[in-house]
Design goal:
The structure is a homodimer. Chain A has helices spanning 15-30, 46-57, 63-87, 119-126, 152-163, 197-205, 213-221, 275-285, 314-328, 355-365, 389-399, and strands spanning 2-7, 35-40, 92-95, 102-105, 112-116, 130-134, 137-139, 145-147, 168-173, 194-196, 226-230, 238-241, 254-270, 293-299, 302-310, 332-345, 370-376, 379-385. By secondary structure, the first copy, chain A, is α/β, with parallel strands linked by helices. Chain A is globular, with a radius of gyration of 24 Å.
């Protein structure tokens, strides 16, 4: 059994935590993971400490140097964990991204893994040693230290599991796994023992911040089983794998929601081809992510377009739209920051009819007014007033009996 | 003009200090150092912070991992300095020991530089860029991170200056240069504008902790001029170079002294060949450094041997000697922790007669009792009671007129 374990920042946040993690590694070895690679993040707070040092010098530090600076964070936690594993009698060796053979391309602080030259780690594994690898970082072809940006550590772990043809990648965080929805909103929310990549992707992109989209996409592409579990509590966690087609499935697996959304409506645009790109092109150029998009014909020869962005991008986007308004010939631009979205997610939807109808009925029965709707094959998303999100999620969780095992 | 500058831990000890250092680098560039390489230590206190993290886990951390851990200290200061230099419009790039091509051998935490593959830095210099290199570290042939141990950062800088065929290596610390003796003991002590490698070696090994012996030896071997100067005050510092034979020199360049010494005397050893190695061999095996050694015939067929060690090694050494006493057939073992040593240093001694006589006369006139004497070509050392060291140094400084330019 060959396993890649990954521990995030809170999991290695202190010397005591590192001691605890070393115990988990020892237990996994004793428990049949004869070949074990550990990927670590920086100790919680360390990356911010380093960023703040640089920001004391300038608000716009050179990106190559920022990567060299923050990459030390993981190097420290990897070395400390290797020290503790050695103390326990486990032959462990720390490796930086460069030493572990993570070759990247793309810009600094947002590099992407191009290949992993894993023969060195492979030899270590064959000798029964435990490589402790820094997540989040690599090296480009000119030997410059790079970092992978958001979600990079999870991506490092999954990519390494793929390169080493591991049996599984275990991602340890401070949550027990994936739940049917946020237990703070629905106390009956149930931990899922199993979820498929597609569902995980939808849940992750909808705000379930357990596992970054990037790493799920990678796991899905290479069919690498990923287990999400807690380093703070015992428990099997949630296994993310391919869809098990033989299994009878419930229509809905989980409910995701997101509060900090804003809605912008451009009304009365003369209707001709290219409106969508005229409206959305400049937003994309400004590197603003647009989420839900709906376009309707409003009256003869005119159309309305409504889309959502995150709260933090609202002011910039509104300014941009008002600037564009004359050239678009639009009648008016309206904004609303008091909205959010609720999504039902489940691969079972494909084979279950009536999920959408049941969703809309449930919301109507609970006085939830739907402002926008979008659907995909395995997801139905509604945009609603922010104040009613909790009520909507609770009603849907009950209506689809998510508290019960599918 | 190609110059390697090195800044120690206090010189880069805070964000403000790093800003200041960047200013010094900019000034040196403006002042004709068209090709400039900067070598940095970890920010003052950072190495201890990292060591303490490891010690919380175990008193005996794996040495390979300790090297990986503490090497991050220099990486942080190099990146921060490069960030600040970039902010000033100077094209600067940080390099770890590995990236800069420092290949080492020998054990972890005490590695030695075997070669520097400097072609990469060379190209950077040719393009007018400023490489900022981490001192104190390198990489072995298996790609493991190594550290050079004590005095490693100075050695990194001198070795890099040699590899790059620099015109000079400037070592910045928190002192203004080399003085004729410690100004805290002799207020008239004068800063030397020039000193030769041999004198610097004797002064360094005698406790003038400005520049580590290892780096002086390296500079001497390759005739690399080294300038010792302060990063806190302006001033030309002290230039360490080859002896300028044409120059008329004073007999004595400086006075070094060392307080924390202990003296051990083994009395009445039956006199036959091999006594010195019988006594000193086991001490060397215990990795204790013996400093002054004197052997005398005491009476017919018996000999006495006296040597000094540092205070911290006294207890271990005494225990070792008492253990050896029976097999040596020695009459007694005596110890004294209340001693120190005073040394006159100067290449001019070679051509000036009477330096020793004048030294002993001066000490006698000032009631300083000499317990041991050793001499080399450019140094006379006396071991005296610790309490009289200041008086001895002051009297000698005045007698040899060291407050006046030679």
């Amino acid at each position: 059994m060959r396993i890649v374990q990954k521990y995030g920042g809170t999991s290695v946040g202190s010397i005591e935590r590192i001691r605890h993690i070393a115990g988990l590694v020892a237990a996994a070895r004793a428990d049949g993971a004869h070949q074990l690679v550990v990927v670590v993040s920086a100790m919680g707070g360390e990356t911010n400490r380093l960023l703040n040092l640089a920001r004391e010098l300038t608000p716009t530090p050179a990106s190559r140097e920022m990567d060299a600076l923050v990459a030390t964070g993981e190097q420290v936690s990897a070395a400390l964990l290797a020290i503790e594993l050695n103390r326990l009698g486990i032959p462990a060796y720390s490796f930086t991204g460069s030493q572990a053979g993570f070759f990247t391309d793309g810009p600094h602080s947002r590099a992407r893994i191009r290949r992993i030259e894993s023969s060195h780690l492979q030899r270590r594994l064959d000798r029964g040693e435990v490589p402790v690898v820094t997540g989040f970082q690599g090296v480009d072809d000119d030997g410059n230290i790079t970092t992978l940006g958001r979600g990079g550590s999870d991506t490092s772990a999954v990519a390494l599991a793929v390169a080493l043809q591991a049996d599984r990648c275990d991602i340890y965080t401070d949550v027990d796994g994936i739940f049917t929805t946020d237990p703070r909103v629905v106390p009956e929310a149930r931990k899922l023992t199993h979820i498929c990549y597609e569902e995980m992707l939808e849940l992750a992109s909808l705000g379930a911040k357990v596992l970054q989209t990037r790493s799920v996409e990678l796991a899905m592409r290479y069919r690498m089983p990923v287990c999400l579990r807690s380093s703070f509590t015992d428990g099997a966690g949630t296994l993310v794998t391919e869809e098990e087609s033989a299994m009878e499935r419930a229509a809905v697996t989980g409910i995701a929601f997101h509060r900090d959304e804003a809605k912008i409506t451009v009304r009365g645009i003369p209707d001709h081809p290219g409106i969508a790109s005229n409206v959305l092109g400049p937003i994309a150029e400004a590197e603003i992510n647009v989420d839900v998009i709906v376009q309707n014909v409003s009256e003869q020869g005119f159309t309305d377009m409504t889309f959502t962005v995150s709260h933090e991008d609202y002011t910039t986007t509104m300014a941009l739209m008002r600037e564009l308004q004359p050239s678009l010939g639009a009648r008016e631009v309206l904004g609303d920051t008091g909205i959010g979205k609720v999504s039902l997610v489940g691969v079972g939807m494909r084979s279950h009819a009536g999920v959408a109808r049941k969703m809309f009925e449930t919301l109507a029965n609970n006085d939830v007014n739907i402002q926008m709707i979008t659907t995909s094959e395995i997801k139905i998303t509604v945009v609603v007033e922010e104040a009613v999100i909790d009520r909507a999620v609770q009603a849907l969780h009950a209506a689809f009996h998510l508290e019960q095992e599918g």
